[in-house]
Amino acid sequence: MRTRPVKSSDCANSSVEALYRDHSTWLRGWLRRKLGNAFDAADIAQDVFIRILGRQQPPQPAEPRAYLSSIARGLVIDHWRRRELEKAWLETLAALPEAQAPSPENRLLLLEALVAIDRMLDALRPPVRQAFLLAQLEGLTCPQIAERLGVSLSTVERHIAKALRHCYEVQFAA
């Protein structure tokens, strides 16, 4: 009987398979207690393992539950942030006259865009994000932002340049 050579991807998949087999039930329970919802818990648990499968190196965690819960915590935060954005978006839509309301397809596209923008801005340090939002949303000039934030003009210019560079990198990395 011939055996096929073992590939590194086979080792990675078997490592993830063992992690899934040994800890997925625990992870779903842990998430269910955090979220109060078995359906969201199952979805996020699945996302944890999908994220692990997407990694280059096979996981070899010394503490598998700590490793899994660390990944899951980030996904739970993303879940709650998306829920908050969705709630605010639905409230905004409810305030629009029916004739101005976007189609269901456009609603979903706009919500996805809001989530992507939120994720992009969340990666910025707070002062950088604040300067960028003052420029983009309120239309303030760099001198006006510097005055409002109590920082130098060159600091505001650096912050806005950093934010624009980050947005550009994220946009073209996808």
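(the above was protein one; protein two follows)
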Amino acid sequence: MRRILTTFAALATLSLSGCATQQRSDTLTTTLNAYASTVRWGDFNAAQAFVDPKLRETHPVSALEMSRYQQYKVSGYDEGKGPTPHGDVEVTQDVQINLVNVNTQAERTITDHQTWHYDAEGKHWWLVSGLPDISRQ
């Protein structure tokens, strides 16, 4: 009887951890899709909401940086191979973003190296690498 209860407890634990992993994975998919949609629309003000609050507090986006974002329209957002997990609570992905300068109509492509971290307490994925750096040529 004791062996049956121990086995049952182990299976229950595995089942619950499997549910947690699936929920974390589903939350990641939802978060990455929402962020991609926000950036595709060029709404970098709204994209800031995906950035880790601690990072927003310590490194706020300046008015100059925000005005730089307004100089561009996003014409493409390609996730390539998608996110790569690094343990249970961190993923990275490299995204190609095509930008068109609204003043010159010149298009260029940047690579955004994203790092996402899972906050287990808040059950939320946060972008810890910040908004894409569009100042690089």
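Reviewer note on protein two: The two ends are 68 Å apart (CA to CA).
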